[in-house]
Design goal:
Layout (H helix, E strand, L loop, with lengths): L7 H12 L2 H13 L3 H29 L3 H8 L4 H4 L6 H25 L7 H14 L1 H20 L1 H29 L4 H9 L8 H14 L6 H6 L8 H29 L10 H12 L2 H37 L3 H21 L3 H4 L3 E2 L2 E2 H28 L2 H12 L3 H23 L4
Antiparallel strand pairs: 1-2
The chain binds phenylalanine (PHE).
Length: about 450
């Protein structure tokens, strides 16, 4: 059987499609707002360059050498204790768990695309009212759009690497870049642009608490899709003789630029039209729609385009969140792609309904434990524990378990004299940093 592989550009767009997601456009701007801008952005950029880039190369290497789903790749590459190391591959489960809430959020975005065509809230208060009414009372709407997200994602997965994942990314990613660039150019023409630049690039060290530091490291992981096998699984379908370092560079570059561009653009709009920067998770669903309202008719167009771009970003990430487990069932249990996609899809869809209901007034009590509802728990456990843990396992696996000669044979020609720097960072800097982050997120530090 001929194995489907990504084309070079297909791989870069698919991996960038995985990385560029709700994390870049929804989460990055609001956490930047919360932690005071410049200093936070600087730490985030340094983390991405030092830790993110290193682990990206390592994760790509596991898939590229392993050539199979995560579990099998770990097993193939471990010189001994294969039965233990294969658990590194079960990180793929984290992707399915993330999908439990990710799909619900994509549902909200779909809903906002439709409503923004004809309606925008006239004030932040009204916007908040609209959003919370949907969140806390409107099961039908949320369920309808969650179902749509499930159908879309599952359909693409059934079509496979080439005809599904690559094809979708080849269309959606350039469209997303085009939309964001257009809106960014417009924001350049507004007076408030300078203010947004100041906010994002002038470091205010007093705001850089240890919590901000940890959040920025954690976010670098989430936004680069590291630690759960999405990049690993895609890399198993990379062309032979690919340059991993170049590929990793492109993915990190695109992901970071899109986050910065989205941030600058949103803060320009928010400054220009009166709403300040620090508005929390509701930023794109509450402050932004009210800001678009102030722009008049062009605001409706912008709102629709913006939510379309956000939906595209979310969808291309979603398929990469589910694909590791799809690939697992295909490789290990010889399931057909159709069967694997539908079962995995149903998993996040059905549990996603519980996450959705946990925000709804009538069910909230039932689905809340220890101050967090089910939706928030899933978010917390995946981002705080599973991804950093996965990153740590991958760094140790490539740094200490796979024979150095094997790692060198692929990466030495590509990294040249930087090989040793990368190897050192992977073995020592990255694990220590990840460990600290995990302890702090768990509240131990
Ligand atoms: N990187 C995606 C985002 O920024 C989320 C993601 C995490 C995707 C982990 C795949 C794996 O939204």
């Amino acid at each position: 059987m001929k194995i489907a592989r990504f084309s070079r550009i297909g791989f870069i767009l698919a991996a960038a499609g995985s990385a560029v997601g709700l994390g870049n456009i929804w989460k990055f701007p609001y956490i930047t707002g919360e932690y005071g801008g410049g200093a936070f952005v600087l730490v985030y950029l340094i983390t991405v360059a030092l830790i993110g880039f290193s682990i990206m190369i390592a994760e790509m290497l596991i898939g590229y050498l392993g050539r199979k789903d995560g579990v099998t790749s770990f097993e193939n590459l471990a010189p001994k204790n294969k039965h233990l190391w294969k658990f590194g591959g079960f990180q793929g489960l984290a992707g399915l768990f993330i999908m439990i809430f990710y799909s619900v959020v994509i549902g909200w975005i779909f809903h906002y695309i439709v409503t923004s065509l004809s309606y925008l809230p006239a004030s932040v208060a009204e916007a908040e009212q609209t959003f919370t009414t949907m969140l806390h009372t409107d099961i039908t709407t949320q369920l309808f759009y969650h179902t749509l997200a499930f159908l879309w994602i599952t359909y693409v997965l059934t079509r496979g690497i080439k005809g599904g994942i690559e094809k979708m990314n080849l269309i959606l990613m350039p469209t997303l870049i085009l939309i964001l660039s257009g809106m960014f150019l417009y924001s350049l023409s507004l007076d408030a642009f300078g203010k947004a630049v100041d906010f994002m690039f002038t470091p205010n060290w007093s705001k850089l608490t240890s919590e901000a530091f940890v959040t920025s490291v954690g976010h670098a992981f989430f936004t680069l899709s590291l630690g759960m096998g999405a990049i690993l699984t895609y890399s198993a379908s990379m062309e032979k003789n690919s340059n991993l370092v170049k590929n990793a560079f492109w993915v990190v570059f695109l992901d970071t630029s899109i986050a910065i561009v989205a941030g600058l653009m949103l803060f320009t709009f928010l400054y220009q039209y009166g709403a300040g920067p620090a508005k929390g998770p509701g930023l794109v669903f509450i402050s932004l729609p009210a800001t678009f309202y102030e722009m008049g008719i062009i605001g409706n167009i912008f709102a629709v385009l913006f939510f379309v771009a956000l939906a595209f970003a979310g969808l291309t990430s979603s398929v990469s969140l589910v694909e590791p487990m799809v690939q697992y069932f295909i490789d290990r249990f010889s399931w057909s792609r159709l069967k694997a996609s539908i079962y995995m899809g149903l998993f996040f869809y059905l549990i996603g309904i519980i996450a959705l209901l946990s925000n709804v007034d009538d069910y909230q009590k039932l689905l809340t434990w220890g101050g967090k509802n089910f939706f928030d728990w899933v978010d917390y456990v995946t981002a705080a524990i599973m991804l950093p843990l996965g990153g740590l396992i991958m760094a140790i696996f490539v740094g200490f378990v796979i024979e150095k000669s094997r790692v060198e044979s692929v990466l030495k020609p590509q990294l040249g004299k930087f090989f040793e720097v990368w190897y050192f960072s992977l073995r020592y800097i990255t694990p220590i940093a990840m460990f600290i982050v995990m302890l702090s997120l768990l509240g131990v530090l």
